[in-house]
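To illustrate the input format used throughout this study, we show a single complete record. The first block contains the structure-token representation of the backbone; no residue identities are included at this stage. The design step must infer an amino acid for every position from geometry alone.
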């Protein structure tokens, strides 16, 4: 279905134009506006199209500084989408932070925050620290501050894809942490992978969802009869040999391979 193509964030300029040229046949424009890396010309084409919601553009993670400015000043745009998804300059961040119409909890979901911005949000009353713990790239000092904060559940930290080896080990040994999150989100060492793999309390499907698996780890999970292969199909970086193995496997749904980035 062409809507799936339009949802692909890796489309080239020509591919975006090709899909857009069929917009009267397929309802793809809002998906292109939300997901694609657009040229300035393509951005303005969607911006000036009354059939495309500008809130779809506001959710695009590839916006330039100037495009963010334009959307911020445009009536009807939900500025929280910009706060949560955009790579903001320091000046733009502070404008959102001081804007009474912007819920700061959306800023806390932004994966591009600087160390100083994380500190500012952490110390701001009413901001949900769970979002900062889950999405932000934290310094060691910030990680330990969250870890020792009784108001922050460590299972949110376990979902952070930027964890270091030592942070993963600390969370693994901490009572109450959901180890399935550790299995699925961060980049694991071989020793950490094997520890989680052999842990009877960890669902192997969680490991299969980890996008950082090595070739050998993918093979190990594939040979088990109790792992849902669709997670490997959609999340793993496959070798050509592994791709063809899945492709020719009658038990594997090739539609899931098509979602693999």
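Output of the design step:
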């Amino acid at each position: 279905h062409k809507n799936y193509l339009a949802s692909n964030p890796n489309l080239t300029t020509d591919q975006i134009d090709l899909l857009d040229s069929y917009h009267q046949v397929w309802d793809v424009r809002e998906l292109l506006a939300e997901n694609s890396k657009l040229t300035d010309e393509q951005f303005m084409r969607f911006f000036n199209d009354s059939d495309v919601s500008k809130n779809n553009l506001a959710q695009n993670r590839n916006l330039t500084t100037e495009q963010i400015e334009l959307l911020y000043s445009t009536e009807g745009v939900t500025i929280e989408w910009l706060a949560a998804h955009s790579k903001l300059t320091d000046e733009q961040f502070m404008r959102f932070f001081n804007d009474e119409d912007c819920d700061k909890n959306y800023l806390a979901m932004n994966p591009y925050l600087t160390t100083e911005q994380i500190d500012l949000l952490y110390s701001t009353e009413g901001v949900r620290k769970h979002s900062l713990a889950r999405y932000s790239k934290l310094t060691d000092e910030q990680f330990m501050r969250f870890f020792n904060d009784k108001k922050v559940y460590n299972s949110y930290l376990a979902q952070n894809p930027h964890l270091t080896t030592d942070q993963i080990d600390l969370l693994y040994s901490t009572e109450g942490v959901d180890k399935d999150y550790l299995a699925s989100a961060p980049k694991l060492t071989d020793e950490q992978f094997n520890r989680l793999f052999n842990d009877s309390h960890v669902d192997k499907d969680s490991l299969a969802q980890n996008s950082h698996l090595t070739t050998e780890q993918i093979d190990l999970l594939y040979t088990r009869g109790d792992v849902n292969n669709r997670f490997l199909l959609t999340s793993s970086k496959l070798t050509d040999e592994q791709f063809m193995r899945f492709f020719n496997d009658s038990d594997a749904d090739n539609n899931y391979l098509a979602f693999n980035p």
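Structural context for interpreting the output: The radius of gyration is 21 Å. Residues 13-20 form the longest helix (8 residues).
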